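Lecture notes, structural biology module. Today: joint structure prediction for complexes of two components.
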Amino acid sequence: MTPLVSIDGLRVEFPAVGGTVVAVRHVDLEIRPGEVLCIVGESGSGKSVTSLALMQLTRFSGGQVAGGNLTFVCRDGEGLDLRAVDESRMRQIRGNEIGMVFQEPMAALNPAYTIGWQLAEGLMTHRGLSKREARERSLELLNRVRIPDPERRLKQYPHELSGGMCQRVVIAMALACEPRLLIADEPTTALDVTVQAEILALIDRLRRETGAAVLLITHDMAVVAQMADRVAVMHGGELVETGSVRQIILQPRHAYTRALLAAVPKIGEMARRSAPARMKIPGAEDRDGIDTPLHAGEQRILEVENLTKRFPVRGGLFGRTIANVHAVEDVTFHVQETETLAMVGESGSGKSTVGRCLLRLDDPDAGEIRFRGQDLVPLSRPAMRDRFRDLQMIFQDPYGSLNPQMCVLDQIAEPIRNYGLERGSALEDRVADLLDRVRMPRQFLRRYPSELSGGQRQRVAIARALAVNPGFIVADEAVSSLDVSIQAQVLNLMMDLQADLGLSYLFISHDMAVVERVAHRVAVMFRGRIVEIGRRSDIFEDPRHSYTRTLLAAVPTMDPADRISHRETDARVLHTPIHPSGYDPGPSRYEEVSPGHFLLQDSVQ
Amino acid sequence: MPADPSLSRVGIDVGVGLAESRQARFSVADYARAVVQDKITLLAVVFLVFLALFSVGAEILAPFPPTGLNLADRMLPPGAIGSKGAFYLLGTDELGRDLFSRLIYGARVSVSVGVLGAVVSCALGVTTGLTAGYFGGLYEDIIMRLVDGMLSLPSLLVALFVLFVLGGGYVNLILVFSVLHWMVFCRLSRGLALDARSATYVQAARTLGASRLRIVFRHILPNVMAPIIVLFTLEIAILILSEASLSFLGFGVQPPDPSWGLMIADGREHIRSAWWLVTFPGLAIFLTALSLNLVANWVRAVTDPVQRWRWLTGH
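The predicted structure, tokenised, for the full assembly:
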């Protein structure tokens, strides 16, 4: 079979200070008609640049295809050298013969136009359909991507739809002209895990129906196992291994592929273990044999009771509060000394708001937060400032949480200076010690955040949080923006620090597989309430709440033979818990199904 | 030959990707190179450097004293040789004073009024604006309503009235400019602070025990400098023009001190017979304002994190 796309010796260069950066070199790839080729790699591996080069889109970000051949077989059977075609011919190919789906569905849609207008636009330019025909075809497409109530959606704007729904629209747009190749660049990375499963299943069905080939770019080995026919592994701008999905997942030959696979936490690995365990990183020496068992202490360091947080929705003539978003609704939990309580849930579940309330970054509307016996809710700002010496936070986005204008030394020294703990050379020694603790070389002291990678920045953020010797750290999605191999290292670091310093963590995360590794106990949040809380084994081996089960079932497995793609469903319409002001949804009532394992009585919702 | 991506490279996250390599710090030399490559900005910078040199070193660089009367050499055209063999590059005025020397001394007045006025109003506006934006509440309301009120005053009329009551002159001029121009800085800074307030690094700073003033001046201010510098540069140009207008109207710098606006006012009567008396001060004002605008535009471009690498790497 002749390949649809042949990439031969591709080399892409980007201008940089004092020369050029080679983003991709020596890449040879083929995409055959109707197959799913996954390019997998970590950030900076060149996987996205490869697909942009194929679409001749690198020039818009300053990049240049400096070598190699790109051949694409058009619908009429003609083999086109994509490097030689002019921009107007390329525009006909983009959208018409090659469809594209990007990572951020919200950013891919124009917020100023309705869904119907955006769908019709491509159909009218590429296919020359009349307005009426384009509308009919748009409806058909929305049906095809299984968006409920498509008539109404055509008149809606992107911000009125959820992220998953938007991604379905983007896929519908990409498929509008029946392309022969669909390029999907991290199509599910920005989405919740249950929505990810839906979207992957959708892409899989559409591929079977239309016969289009799919080039799927991802960093997630589980997605690869679920979707790919063939896999190309990229690292540092080069192709390290290609092969069938079974071969890559089950018998990886290259050391890098093996390392990448090993770094992925696999759900179910931790069955019948009581304590968290370090991530396995091949090649890196393990500290104490296989894992460091961490047993939780007896004393409660944090007790949260009936925590409630509502955000007002203002409207009307004078901006009165007309409704409230019930972000956190009657949440009760505790954390023991040297324990990790994981708080899991999808976006909008209120898990981050709980974390922010603990540090009073948001002020709770009701409830008590007792930290070492003292209620934090009534504390004034200066009194709260004192508590920050014991209660720290690591934020999700290591790119945003460091002040871009301060060097590493000043970043880590910030809390030490603010509390006047050390000065002069003692201060520098302390910072250097902290840098050692998070295993970063001391040469980094004078560097600025823009000169650090994501993992290094998160290490600096951890060092900074440790600077005041806190007992409790809220880690809000602390590793979710990191590459898997770096995620594994940072998680190990956090677990080692817990063992060495006796830290307690509130570990907020959406990633069930990571949570299974690090948590002693798990709380599952859904629409503002904890629906189930218990020891890790309770939640993972004996989930009782239907939402917990949905969440666990949606996690893709690493087994190419066990694909969840047949479980396709319609797009769900998510109800954000918004209620008119004055509405009282009632307290959360729990049933204790086993000692320490509580289940929300659903009648409340 | 592809490099072997060995396990050690997987193990240590020192790899800096494409995005990072673009955002790396730029040295002063990089900025200097970028200025040299951009011809128009280079001209503007060279002009401003000369202007600064002449303002500072007027006593050494000016060929004649600015108020030196010489009635024998009245109204000589540019390039004329005077009665005692003196060479007048740009001619003389109705009292026989050398126009070039007066322009140089005038530059000192105009430039220093512009720069000092901009410095004081910038300091005032940025302090109030950043604190208003970050603190919020009643304090913000009071500051911002004050800004609204002051912005709705006709500034030229207020300046005329105040200078009429207080009397003109150098110090009063700077004070009046500061009082009438801090609001622009205040509005801009408040917007920037509102934006920065929700930034993660500012929230992080709160949890690290930074005081409110420390957050405003140590964390927010350095990150919002770029638009403030652009506005500062533009404001110097506006103030130089305002100084010229006020002096022209007789409320600014008082004769016999030279100022560009005053020189135009004096030359106005002789515009038919001695065109140079109005043309050269006017040209000086125009070129100064133009250069400052060009430089402001360049600063805006090189401080934009998206555009910066294009300018600084010459692509």
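Point to remember: Chain B touches chain A through 45 residues (CB under 8 Å).
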